[in-house]
Amino acid sequence: MERRRNAVSRRRDAHLTSRIVARTLLGESEIQDSRSTPASWHLARAIRLLGTPLTRLLPFDLLGLPYQKYLDATAALEEEMLRILEARKTETRDGQRGDMLESLLLAHDDETNTQLTDHEILGHVSVFFAAGHETSANALAWTLFLLAMFPEVSAKVSEEVDQVLGGAEPTVEALDRLVYLGWVIKESLRLFTPAPWNGRVLAEDTEFLGYPLPKGAELLVSLYQTHRVPEVFPEPLRFFPERWENLKPSVYEYNPFSAGPRICIGAAFATMEIKIVLAMIYQRYRLALVPQRIDRFAELVLSPTSLRMRIEPKDGRFADSRAKIRGNLGDMVELPV
Ligand code: HEM
Fold first, then answer.
1. Which fold has domain 134-331?
2. Catalytic status, residue 192
3. For 86-108, how does the pLDDT look when each residue is reduced to its tens digit (9 = 90+)?
4. Best of 135, 263, 271 to mutate for ligand 1, by most ligand atoms within 8 A of CB?
5. Cα 264 to middle of ligand 1, angstroms
6. Per the residue annotation, which of 17, 128, 264, 271 is the catalytic one?
7. If you write DSSP's letter for every residue of 47-59 in order, what string do you get?
8. Widest CA span of the chain, in angstroms?
9. Contact residues of ligand 1, CB 6 A cut-off
10. DSSP H or E stretch at residue 287
11. I need a labelling partner for 59 at 20 to 30 A (CA). Which of 1, 89, 163, 202 fits?
12. Is pTM beyond 0.85 here?
């Protein structure tokens, strides 16, 4: 195979996972290529503008300000989504498409004899779309980074993928047998928690470690720190997939998808998606890092500031995938010197 230079993932680029989630939500015909789909384009623009510090500093609907551009992008996204919805309503609804938009259109509450309104459907689809691609894209990016830096782990993944799948496409049944790859993903989500924190408003007075916390207080919960408690995860900064062989933390000790009633609804989907993508990459290629500076960047999602990798043919030369990396990732994981 011809050697190609390619950037597999950069911050804000999440073409693969946005295509996967868009197809699941909206179906095949709407999404030929997410880059040229107006909905994806407006969404990417809105997210980019939301991440611009000036949008937060000057939240005014005034000409030329990024905040106004952000409002324009969200309005354009809503218009486009409503267009898709209208087009769908004219189709025969027979449950054949099997995408989420169809399920929402068909949903009917027999007790109250009601259906979802257009704006409720729009809300559901948009949240799934927004919540369901940057997280998975970064989980994949961090896992590929770790696999390139730890050749012995990569070699085991490759061996397992070959043994379990041979050259065949991964089936749901076969995914369960990719046990080691499952540990790798868990360990990557532990160290590089894609959604590193979440917020809660207290429903009642309580206390934490002796600190009184009043009802209505806003709390930030660090999933990232939770994953580094040494009593649960000995040598917490070590990337050690084998720890999952016997480790069974409670959902409050290990929670990349959060816990409680607001737990990520896409957790099973994301875990399966990441496993399939990694398995398919390992069936064909070896992804090698190039020397570069990589820092962490976290607003809503923990991302690498850069992640340039070379796509090599599957040649088993995992030691060659490592590269000299500068930046602050050493605070998050013990990297080989
Ligand atoms: C590795 C990938 C992912 C990670 C780490 C992740 C993590 C999270 C976290 C931490 C929350 C917050 C829950 C809370 O507030 O306690 C959340 C919410 C959510 N996630 Fe995910 N997620 C991922 C992928 C996905 C995917 C693929 C989808 C959809 C297909 C999805 C859909 C959602 C939705 C709809 C919510 C809001 C749930 C609610 O508020 O009730 N996520 N996710």
1. Cytochrome p450 (1.10.630)
2. no
3. 888 877 666 677 888 888 988 99
4. 135
5. 4
6. 264
7. HHHHTSHHHHH--
8. 64
9. 21, 127-128, 131-132, 135-136, 139, 194-195, 198, 256-258, 262-266, 269-270
10. strand 285-289
11. 202
12. yes
Ramachandran angles phi, psi of 323, nearest 5°: -150, 165
Catalytic residue among 135, 143, 226, 271: 135
The sign of the dihedral angle between the CA atoms of 219, 222, 228, 233 is positive
> Could you tell me what percent of the chain has a pLDDT over 90?
65
Domain with CATH 1.10.630.10 in the chain: 134-331
Q: How far apart are CA 311 and CA 148, in angstroms?
A: 11
Q: How far is CA 302 from CA 34, 119, 134, 261, 298, in A?
A: 22, 30, 9, 23, 4
What DSSP character marks residue 170? P
- Over residues 171-207, the pLDDT tens digits come to 999 999 999 999 999 999 999 999 999 889 999 999 9
